[in-house]
Amino acid sequence: MKLLNRLREGNLRDWGASFWEQSSPTKRKVIATSLIGFAALAPFMGFGLLDTPVSDYGAVLVYPVGMFILMALGLNIVVGKSGLLDLGYVAFFAIGAYTMAILGTRTSLNTWEIMPIGIALAMLAGLILGLPALRLRGDYLAIVTLGFGEIVRISALNTREIGGPNGIANVPVPPSIGPIKFSLNDQKAFFWVVLIMILLTIWMIRRLSVRRAGRAWEAIRQDEDVAELMGVHTLKYKLWSFSLGAAVGGAAGVLYASKTLFIAPEMFTLNVSILILACVVFGGMGNIWGVVLGAAILAYLPERIRFISDARLLVFGLALVITMNFRPDGLLPRKKREKAIVKSTQDGI
Amino acid sequence: MFSTLIDQFWSLTLSGIALGFIYVLISLGYTMVYGVLRMINFANSEIFMFGTFATIVISRDFLGNVDGTKSLPLPKLILTITLCLLGSMLVSGLVAVFVELVAYRRLRARGTNKLATLISAIGISIVLSEFMRIITNSRPTLNPRVLEKKSLFEIAGASFRMDTVLTIIFAAVLFVVLDRFVKFSRLGRAIRAVSMNEDASKLMGVDLNKVISATFLIGGLMSGAAAFFYTLTYENTKFNVGFTLGLAAFTAAVIGGIGNIRGAFFGGLSLGLVEVYASSILGTEWKSVTVFIILVLVLVLKPNGIFGEAVQQTRA
């Protein structure tokens, strides 16, 4: 009953936060361990009930569910934490995937060795795009990032050296770690890797949020001019936010290429950026748990319900419009104390 | 590399101007809305896309122009052009009004920040294009040929085709009409007042919702006209046709200074020319990349465009 009331009040997030803060360290450890354990067992919990009609349940957990959660968390640093609308997020995913595909097929490096290279390249791309683009605001930034995403895709499409429209095939799977083997038929290992990456990302965001960078992002999101006047080096922190987001996207890309074994430019269209944005917005911008929940729901439902899978983007578009119109803070809004006081007369972003 | 450019300079220039006029009309859609709302209307490309389908449906299904092998007789041709142009403008205009109602109005009434409105506009744009994708099965739709694309006359090797001439004349007329309308009519004054200062114009008795709806309608009408000329020239369309064209038109609006009607004219024409010249040098597959790079360069080097207000100062 209490929970229902909380739901009606609309801020389950606040309730969760206060519950967490009132728990003792031991209790916190127990909660966290059991949650992670529960998530790690997800591949065994299909039971016919959660199984997906179109594709294999274990595969669905990796892509789209796990990948979407990971990328949504990365995009959340940019969109949710610092309020910068990035519509070209797919570019970083593509850069990671292409790094894996090119190095994996042409050198003897394995996935784990390519991962840092992919991340570094994605971050570099984030910096290259960010330096000119982050001087712009709001809708201009959105258009320029959108353009960047397209440039990356079109360049991949038009460059014959990296396969052009045919893409790159025979990308190697990661080498096995001890008894855990990676193969296309059994995707549990991939799921666990994604899970570890998600946890690392969450840990990184939580650490950064309470430190200088997090406070700077929050200030920039609430009012960039004021933040700048208060001495926040806005461009620097915006670049940080951008390249950290890019790093997560790049890591997701490396793993994705290593999982699907084949990549082509058509996998990296604007639609992917929009899907990830929808996950962030639907779940609740700026709130990690909201984003995780939103991405899990939006990634899983189209796989479960065949009718939706044909009209996936339509549903995602509707999710964007409806969320913005009726519940602009998303399913799980950010904590009340983090909310900005935005005056209706001022059009701050 | 440059030989094509030099050999066919005048013919390229002509097709650049024709393409430029299509850009001018679409970028008016962006510029009008930006003027009053200080927002990019992300759904403008879909508003355009609906216009192209309206043209095809009217020409093919209502007027029965299915035989695309030869040109129509003159009376039927005039009827087709008039009905398609008006129909396409009307459909796009109505879609634009619908977009404003669904994606913008509620958020504006509540005074939410721009990020929310932007996301809502992106959402409606996805919904519109996916709707069209699903009902057309992702296939491109052909427009039956209504007029033979024979050359009327030639100047310096550039052949003035029927469709090129029609596009240029009609688009120029529409542009002048719009420019006069915004300058002299009562509604035009209201639109300019809102774009100068929303609060003050509200105090002076301007009905804000009505003016904003009207602005979307006018922007939609212009994009609809562009859609008609586009389908007339290129004779096919697809659910995502608005994406590249919309971005190019947006770039055009930014070049001229977004929010400025005459700037859109200048920006559209220059982008049309640059795009055609650049494609002849680099090849058409790099066309959209060229456009994006121009956009980024303009935004970084001269963000207020050539006639416009400063982008960076305008809180976006």
Strand content of chain B: under 5%
**In angstroms, what separates the terminal alpha carbons of chain A?**
37 Å
Outline the low-pLDDT stretches of chain A.
Answer: 340-349
- Number of DSSP strands of chain B? 4
**Termini separation of chain B:** 41 Å
Number of domains of chain B: 1
Average pLDDT for all residues of chain A: 85
**Rg measurement of chain A, Å:** 20 Å
Helix/sheet category of chain A: mainly alpha
**What oligomeric state is this?**
heterodimer
Count the DSSP helices of chain A. 15
- List low-pLDDT spans of chain B: 310-316
Report the sheet with the most strands of chain A, covering strand number, pairing sense and barrel closure: none
- Written as H for each helix and E for each strand, in order along the chain, the element string of chain B is HHHHHEEEHHHHEHHH
Q: What share of residues are in beta strands of chain A?
A: under 5%
What does this structure look like?
The complex is a heterodimer of chains A (349) and B (316). Chain A is an all-alpha fold and 349 residues long. Chain A starts with a helix and ends in a 23-residue tail after the last helix. Chain A has a domain at 62-266. Chain A is built from 15 helices and no strands. In chain A, α4 packs across α12, α4 runs antiparallel to α13 and α12 (270-283) packs across α13. Chain A has helices at 2-9, 12-22, 25-40, 57-81, 90-106, 111-133, 138-158, 188-209, 212-222, 224-229, 234-260, 270-283, 288-304, 306-310, 312-326. The longest helix of chain A is centred in the last third of the chain and has 27 residues, at 234-260. Chain B is globular. In chain B, α2 (9-37) packs parallel to α6 (162-184) and α2 (9-37) packs across α7. A two-stranded antiparallel ribbon of chain B has the order 1-4. In chain B, strands 2-3 form a two-stranded antiparallel ribbon. Chain B contains twelve helices and four strands; from the N terminus they run αααααβββααααβααα. By secondary structure, chain B is mainly alpha-helical. Chain B has a single domain, classed as ABC transporter involved in vitamin B12 uptake, BtuC, CATH 1.10.3470. Chains A and B meet through α7, α12 and α15 of A and α4, α5, α10 and α12 of B.
